[in-house]
Structure formats: C-alpha cells, structure tokens
C-alpha cells in the first residue's frame, strides 16, 4: 500500500455508511490496518450517517448509495450543503456502490461527492482514494470515469441535436462563468480535467501545492462547484477539453 503519513500527524478519521454490516466491518478492517487511517463510526443508513458526522466529526465518509431511510445520494447532498453553509471542506464523501451505472456516477458527482469507487475495488486503491479525497484531490474509479465522460458527451449531443459523428457543441451555460477565470485558473481547470492531482500540478507548474490548492479553490468558487470531479464534468460540458484528452492519474 502507499506510504503511510508520519506517525506524528493526526490520523484521517473515517465514517463508513453502508446498510450491510459485513461490508461495513470489512471496510473498517481494511482502513484500520493503515497507520494513518482510523474508522471512528459506522452507519447503516444516510440519516444515521448525518447524526454521526455531527457527533464524530470525520474527515472522510465512505458512502453507500442504496440504503434504507435515506440513501447515500441524499445524504451526500446534505453533507455538501452543510459544508458550504459552514465554509468548510470536510467531510469529503467517497461514494461506494456495486452498480457500475452512469446514472449513479453522474448523480454522485452532482450531489457533491469527491470520488466514486466500486465496492470490489482493490483495497490498495480504496486506501489511496481515502487519502486522495482527504488532501483535496478527486478520485473516481477508472471504468466509471470513462462512462461518466462518455455519458456527458452523449448528453451534450442529445441536447445540441448533433449526431454521433458530429462533435458536440460546448454548453453555453458555462461560457460566462468560465470567463471569470484567470488565465492560470483556466490552465488549472484543463489539467484537473486531464486527471492531474495537486501534487502533479505543483510539479508541472513549478509552484507549491499550497498555491495549487488556492487556485483550485478559486476555480471551484467562481464556478459554484463543490469538488474537483464536478469541475472535470464542467470542463467537458464546456468544451474546454475533449474526450480522449484526459489522462487519469492514481497517486497516493
């Protein structure tokens, strides 16, 4: 697995929300095996997850989609709204599901999830994903990323009345908002859409990760978004990047 954080640093606090106890326990065992991660609470539905977030203040929530009482998408929307109202960035939500379906990917992204993984994801990738969303990078399952971007382009074609052989027109809804971005912020948006993490961006642009995070926060704020993965969708919808140009990176 990826190198652990220094032992002197606080552990990443995680809440696991899934209606199946065996899955909750299995995820907790994987996470608690890592020296820099700790599971602070487990929830059986979205409503319980919201209560436990207030009680335990986790950094990351692993959120199942299909749960009774309140599903994971509604819970994620409420977490995102609460974070925005309080001016904070945590907890980040990493959505887990067994359903490799673009509808769930899009719904999770629009609800404000920072990442999307299938439940049969390799444990190493799961751990890397938790660390990534905690430090502010977005992580999406590779197969789901492809489905997501292809689906976005298909939706653009349907809305614009274009055919599969014709390129989709950029979504005019974003034109004015993108105009608010500085040249450097537009550059940041393009590289985010191509899959670069904050660390990658810092290295490529010869600046510090702190500077990159400041630019990313500004991009999200100006576009009214809550996560990097939402910014990726916007970049494709707006025609800033096109399918085939994105390179998904998996850094822990």
Helix content estimate: 40-55%
What spatial order of strands do you see in the largest sheet?
A: 2-1-3-4-5-6
Structural class label? alpha/beta
Radius of gyration: 18 Å
Low-confidence stretches: 2-6, 162-170, 246-252
Largest sheet: 6 strands, parallel
Oligomeric state of the chains present here: single chain
Following the backbone from N to C, one meets helices and strands in this order, namely EHEHEHEHEHEHHHHHH
Describe this structure in words.
Residues 178-239 form the HTH luxR-type domain. This protein is an alpha/beta fold. Helix 3 (72-86) packs parallel to helix 4 (102-111) and helix 8 (183-193) packs across helix 11 (228-237). The chain is 50% helix and 12% strand. Mean pLDDT is 81; it is low at 2-6, 162-170 and 246-252.
What would you say about this model in short?
With 252 residues, the chain is α/β, with parallel strands linked by helices. The chain has 11 helices and 6 strands.
Helix and strand arrangement:
Layout: E1 12-17, H1 21-32, E2 37-43, H2 46-56, E3 60-64, H3 72-86, E4 92-97, H4 102-111, E5 115-118, H5 123-134, E6 139-140, H6 142-160, H7 175-178, H8 183-193, H9 198-205, H10 209-223, H11 228-237
Domain HTH luxR-type: 178-239
Protein name: Response regulator transcription factor
Organism: Kribbella yunnanensis
List keywords for this structure.
252 residues; 11 helices; 6 strands; 50% helix; 12% strand; disordered N terminus; disordered C terminus; transcription; phosphoprotein; NreC/VraR/RcsB-like_REC; CheY-like_superfamily
């Amino acid at each position: 697995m990826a190198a652990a954080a220094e032992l002197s640093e606080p552990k990443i606090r995680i809440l696991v929300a899934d209606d199946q106890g065996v899955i909750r326990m299995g995820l907790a065992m994987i996470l608690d095996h890592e020296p820099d991660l700790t599971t602070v609470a487990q929830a059986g539905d979205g409503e319980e997850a919201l209560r436990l977030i207030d009680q335990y203040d986790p950094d990351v929530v692993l959120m199942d989609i299909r749960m009774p009482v309140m599903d994971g998408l509604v819970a994620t929307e409420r977490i995102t709204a609460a974070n925005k109202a309080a001016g904070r960035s945590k907890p980040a939500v990493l959505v887990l599901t067994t359903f490799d379906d673009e509808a769930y990917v899009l719904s999770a992204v629009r609800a404000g999830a920072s990442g999307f993984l299938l439940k049969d994801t390799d444990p190493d990738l799961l751990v890397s994903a938790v660390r990534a969303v905690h430090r502010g990078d977005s992580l999406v399952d590779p197969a789901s990323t492809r489905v997501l971007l292809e689906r976005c382009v298909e939706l653009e074609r349907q809305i614009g009345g274009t055919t599969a052989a014709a390129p989709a027109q950029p979504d005019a809804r974003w034109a004015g908002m993108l105009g608010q971005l500085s040249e450097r912020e537009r550059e940041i948006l393009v590289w985010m859409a191509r899959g670069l993490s904050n660390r990658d961006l810092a290295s490529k642009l010869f600046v510090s990760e702190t500077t990159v995070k400041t630019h990313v926060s500004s991009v999200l704020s100006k576009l009214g978004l809550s996560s990097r993965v939402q910014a990726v969708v916007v970049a494709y919808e707006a025609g800033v990047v096109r399918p085939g140009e994105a390179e998904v990176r998996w850094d822990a």
